[in-house]
Amino acid sequence: MPKISAQKLKDRYDSILDAAQQAFVENGFEASSITQIANAADVSEGLIYRYFENKHDLLLRMLEAFYARFVMKIQSVVASEGDFETRLRVMTRAHLQAYVEDADICRLFIAEVRSSNPNSHPDTQAIDKRYGMMLMRFVQNGIREGSIRSELDPRLVRDLFWGVLENVARRHLNGRMPLDVDVMSESICDVLLSGVENKGVTSSRSSAGRNKSKRRNGRSKA
Amino acid sequence: MPKISAQKLKDRYDSILDAAQQAFVENGFEASSITQIANAADVSEGLIYRYFENKHDLLLRMLEAFYARFVMKIQSVVASEGDFETRLRVMTRAHLQAYVEDADICRLFIAEVRSSNPNSHPDTQAIDKRYGMMLMRFVQNGIREGSIRSELDPRLVRDLFWGVLENVARRHLNGRMPLDVDVMSESICDVLLSGVENKGVTSSRSSAGRNKSKRRNGRSKA
DNA sequence: CCGATTAAATGGGTTATATTCATTGTAGCC
DNA sequence: GGCTACAATGAATATAACCCATTTAATCGG
Questions:
Q1: What is the C-alpha separation between B187 and A213, in angstroms, rounded?
Q2: Minimal CA–CA distance to B20: which of B67, B61, B74?
Q3: Region of B195 on the Ramachandran plot (φ > 0 left; ψ -120 to 50 alpha; else beta)
Q4: Residue B171, min C-alpha distance to chain A (Å)
Q5: Where on strand D do bases come within 7 A of a protein Cβ?
Q6: Looking at the predicted structure, is the pLDDT value of residue A212 above 60?
Q7: What is the pTM of this model?
Q8: Of B73, B114, B49, B189, whose CA–CA distance to A152 is shortest?
């Protein structure tokens, strides 16, 4: 056969990837078979192994493509004007929105990225790392602009943002509650910025403002 | 063959579960074979299917057992004396500690619980739910005691706690950074309680205290 | 103590599916 | 037009979960 044009190769590649994505999203990774994907993509089973290393590699490439789109979306939105708080609110909304729109892929994405241990699957780790770096830059900008307390470890702040976003999204995806993206993202930003502590004197107890000074700086240790 | 004593049955069950846990932890779920587990447990392959529905069920039972221990640990520690803040610090430390001690099982746990979609695997969801309920009670106590702002949605607060714990733990497990549990848990509690916002007038910008009143109550909508 | 009963345990057989590879087809080039 | 290099095929292979007919042995009634 021929040394086919680059375009044709790309098309074949894409059609296999598309078929795989649809299969994985509909039936999950395990329940999707190479045969089924091959049929859907109108190629032989063997050909898949010319374009992809194996079934799992097929999943990874699919997730990478999804992730690239995801990051692009978030970044374009974060690059917008406005102070840190505005950008935080916009980003949070976009982030949740993406989860809601592509719930099924997100599940696959999270499962894959979270499960792999670092020794195997460096590709997976790389996806995760890029994601984290984007958030990290975001936080660092916030610190630079003076919107985030500069004594905080930016990595911790990033994990805080990251964690609450993923958790809120996941709960709404796995539960059956519909997620009002606008309302929820606003609440998230509020609590991220202000913390949960009750600074008023509402309490029956006096725990609220207790040893604040000690906490803010001191390593009291336990 | 005999109707064996309940004790003997329990022992067999446990020995299979132990072998499975070791295999899964060392090689991961996929890479562990029933044959290998059967050999390690000194039983025939077929017998495993008398005690467990299938390989995946074996994983679930193993994770349930792990999770039961985990919750017990946390609960015993949270039940301790002290105000909300103290309990929060103690719980956070215990939580991180557990992650560090059983890193490999935690990875399996997270992967399994996070990946499954709600339609399949109700057992998995149940594990997750109990976990969430424990945290939820914790938060509600904090609100009742007046330590957490009562206008916050407790579910959101729970997701905040949950998310940052998991994310911090995961990053340290997957990266190679050692995690200083005491130091990190203190930082986490600080930021959870106080939020990230810079309330001082350090900033070159005026973003810090800008529309605070609007934020605290109003649905400004977007 | 014995043999009948019944459930535990075995392990070879079955099935399902990812992966391979010897073979076939064909696009581009001389 | 034939040559060649590579795309493409799909039957064959390998592996591993899972099934089931058969075997083994605890328990108990006599």
A1: 14
A2: B61
A3: left
A4: 9
A5: 5-11, 16-21, 23-27
A6: no
A7: 0.84
A8: B189
